[in-house]
UniProtKB/TrEMBL annotation:
<feature type="domain" description="Bacterial repeat">
    <location>
        <begin position="211"/>
        <end position="289"/>
    </location>
</feature>
<protein>
    <submittedName>
        <fullName>Leucine rich repeat protein</fullName>
    </submittedName>
</protein>
<dbReference type="Pfam" id="PF13306">
    <property type="entry name" value="LRR_5"/>
</dbReference>
<dbReference type="InterPro" id="IPR044060">
    <property type="entry name" value="Bacterial_rp_domain"/>
</dbReference>
<dbReference type="Pfam" id="PF18998">
    <property type="entry name" value="Flg_new_2"/>
</dbReference>
<feature type="domain" description="Bacterial repeat">
    <location>
        <begin position="40"/>
        <end position="107"/>
    </location>
</feature>
<feature type="domain" description="Bacterial repeat">
    <location>
        <begin position="127"/>
        <end position="201"/>
    </location>
</feature>
<dbReference type="InterPro" id="IPR032675">
    <property type="entry name" value="LRR_dom_sf"/>
</dbReference>
<feature type="domain" description="Bacterial repeat">
    <location>
        <begin position="309"/>
        <end position="376"/>
    </location>
</feature>
<dbReference type="InterPro" id="IPR053139">
    <property type="entry name" value="Surface_bspA-like"/>
</dbReference>
<dbReference type="InterPro" id="IPR026906">
    <property type="entry name" value="LRR_5"/>
</dbReference>
């Protein structure tokens, strides 16, 4: 195997090698006084810092506690654990994010002094001790105040290292991270008389191995941690080598001689992690990136398609087949051919319309997988309205979808069944019927012989049930046939709206059952139902249009809570009406007639606290002085002074 030995690079110990070094991490350090009675300041290298500042790992923060008069340091904590005894300062080497606190206590009771003995067992080094208020010394013993931290420093002779630390003292241990084999420092928070010993041994040297790395042409290589000057690395060090291919290139292969490969290092891998167990050589080579390709498909959207589409390569004009993978930045030209009477409506790429393009060509540069679609529309101008030869008139409500509503039925339809044309054709264009104008519904009122509606076919907008015309979901009853046999009818439970004039001019029904859930009765829906005597009004009703139950034979009417307004022709000419109850939510009659000519009226109950405003012709033809009025007890005076209400029979009856 070929090695690019001539391209060996080695790092520099000052971190200036081409591969760069790992930046020194920083950690946030917070500090405060627990309980008051003093202050706490912190400095790094003589520069004061604030609580919450970030400090580079390896730096030492010196905390200085200043008690108020009559107080002294009680203790320190690091991340909630006691450290540093009662010293007035604390040096903290930054290794992680930390929280430091100090507390103070009164000077009323002086703290005792204890003897601290220290020595070296054997030879090959010396031992010194110091504490807050006691300078570092090699002379044992020293006298230190209770609660202070005693710091012991071992000085091994050349070629030696600390073998062991020993501590003798009731309830005392070395602070975490100190007093261990190989560690030159031990710290103890003083609680009583103390003896500390240290011993030394011949220093154990860590083996080192030469590590080299090399990169082939069209790229580079880096190491983390960076290789030191000379390339000698401690045994068992783990190094991650990272390949840096130039633009347009990618990793080809790694060649690793010696050591233990832990991860990566395979063809195409961008890194290789190696454990150094012997001399190691790492080399990486590069190759050109293969061209990126994407699949492009195309077609005609819509049914029927009303046209075709083809494609070719712009570069040489050769045909392009849908579903073929092509190189990135390839330019394709698409051509649409429309059928007679049609034109390009739009082009889309992955479902998104190409802005402003309705031409027969579209040029596309490939940057990702794409589905190119073209759709066609009729080139015939869509009118706002049109009339068929049979006299039926329509209004276009959605030109893009070709949706219409019928505004006039055809001239003189005959028979007992009226078949609604769910689609109609005009000047070669097919339209879909979605509903009817109010004028058209009025015309159905004139078809006395009509017993049932039917549909010419399936539709997403209309339905027929039992000859009655509904919207598709049967939430709105559009029209009940005027000549349908039977004296009673139960409106389906799904209905929420009685449509405009849906029962108007019916002469056969005596009873209509309205469903719970009905919310709206539109204008004229129950007008001129001449024989209608029984109709339940569900509590879910909130909106009542004009001409409600006018000219019917109802005797008792209760308007449910939630209705706030009533409109013109409300209960007009209901000559058999005896009782009327109006809800507390009723606020006003909008206009015109209200209970006109209800000559049999005996009792009106109005639960509204404030007398509702009534139109100019309210109760016309009714002798109100003979009609009982029931109102809230607290509102009697207001009703006695309100227009129309004041004319009812006295005294008013109060509601509980």
């Amino acid at each position: 195997m070929l090695f690019a030995a001539a391209l060996v690079f080695t790092g520099c110990s000052n971190g200036s090698d081409s591969g760069g070094g790992t930046p020194t991490p920083k950690h946030a350090v917070t500090f405060s006084v627990d309980g008051g009675n003093g202050t706490l300041k912190a400095a790094v290298g003589g520069t004061e810092i604030s609580s919450g500042d970030t400090v580079e790992q390896g730096k030492t923060i010196v905390f200085t506690a200043t008690p108020d008069s009559g107080f002294h340091v009680k203790g320190w904590t690091l991340d909630g654990k006691a450290v540093n005894g009662t010293n007035s300062s604390y040096s903290f080497p930054v290794t992680k994010a930390a929280e430091v606190k100090v507390s103070f206590e009164s000077n009323s009771t002086p703290l005792p002094q204890y003897a601290v003995n220290f020595s070296v067992e054997g030879a090959n080094g010396t031992l010194k001790a110091k504490a807050d208020g006691v300078a570092e010394t090699a002379t044992s013993p020293i006298s230190v105040q209770k609660g202070k931290t005693v710091t012991f420093t071992a000085f091994p002779a050349a070629g030696y290292e600390v073998k062991e630390w020993q501590i003798f003292g009731t309830g005392m241990v070395f602070e975490a991270g100190t007093g261990t084999a190989g560690n030159n420092t031990a710290k103890v928070n003083l609680k009583g008389n103390l003896t500390v010993k240290v011993s030394f041994k011949v220093q154990t040297l860590t083996p080192k191995h030469l590590v080299t790395m090399a990169a082939g042409a069209n790229g580079g290589i880096t190491a983390a941690p960076a290789l030191p000057a000379g390339g000698m690395v401690n045994e068992n060090t783990i190094i991650t080598f990272t390949a840096k291919p130039n633009e347009g290139y990618t990793v080809d292969a790694w060649t690793i001689t010696g050591g233990q490969l832990l991860a990566g290092g395979q063809a195409g891998s961008s890194t290789a992690m190696v454990k150094i167990t012997e001399p190691v050589t790492v080399a990486v080579s590069f190759k050109l990136k293969p061209p990126t390709t994407y699949t492009v498909s195309f077609g005609v959207a819509g049914t029927p398609p009303n046209g075709t589409i083809s494609a070719k390569y712009k570069a040489d004009g050769t045909a392009f087949t849908s579903g073929t993978a092509v190189g990135e930045n390839t330019v394709l030209v698409f051509t649409a051919s429309h059928a007679t009477g049609y034109k390009v409506e739009k082009w889309t790429v992955n479902g998104t319309a190409v802005p402003g393009n309705t031409s027969t060509t579209y040029e596309h540069t490939v940057t990702r997988g794409a589905d190119i679609q073209v759709s066609f529309v009729s080139s015939v101008e869509i009118p706002d309205t049109f009339t068929l030869s049979n006299g039926a008139k329509y209004k276009v409500v959605d030109k893009e979808q070709k949706h219409v509503i019928m505004t006039k039925r055809e001239n003189d339809p005959v028979g007992t069944v009226y078949t609604v044309a769910v689609t109609v054709e005009h000047e070669g264009i097919t339209y879909t019927l979605t509903g009817f104008s109010e004028e058209c519904v009025d015309e159905f009122c004139n078809l006395s012989s009509l017993e049932a509606f039917a549909l010419s076919g399936e539709t997403a907008f209309l339905s027929v049930d039992g000859g009655v015309l509904f919207d598709k979901a049967k939430t709105k009853l559009i029209r009940y046939p005027k000549g349908k046999t039977g004296t009673s009818y139960t409106v389906p439970a799904s209905v929420r709206v009685l449509g405009y004039s849906s029962f108007e001019s019916n002469s056969t029904l005596t009873a209509i059952a309205l469903p719970t859930g009905l919310t709206t009765i539109e204008d004229g829906a129950l007008y001129c139902c001449y024989e209608l005597k029984t109709v339940n009004i569900p509590s879910t009703l909130t909106s009542i249009g004009t001409a409600f139950l006018g000219y019917s034979k109802v005797e008792d009417v209760k308007i449910p809570e939630g209705v706030t307004e009533l409109d013109n022709l409300f209960l007009n000419n209901c000559e058999e009406l005896k009782t009327l109850e109006l809800p507390s939510t009723f606020t006003k009659h909008l206009r015109g007639d209200f209970c006109k000519n209800c000559t049999a009226l005996e009792t009106v109950t109005c639960k509204a606290v404030s007398p509702p405003a009534l139109g100019s012709d309210a109760f016309s033809g009714v002798t109100l002085s003979g009609v009982e009025l029931k109102v809230p007890a607290a509102s009697v005076s207001a009703y006695e002074n309100a227009p129309y209400w004041k004319d009812f029979k006295k005294p008013f009856v109060t509601l509980p």
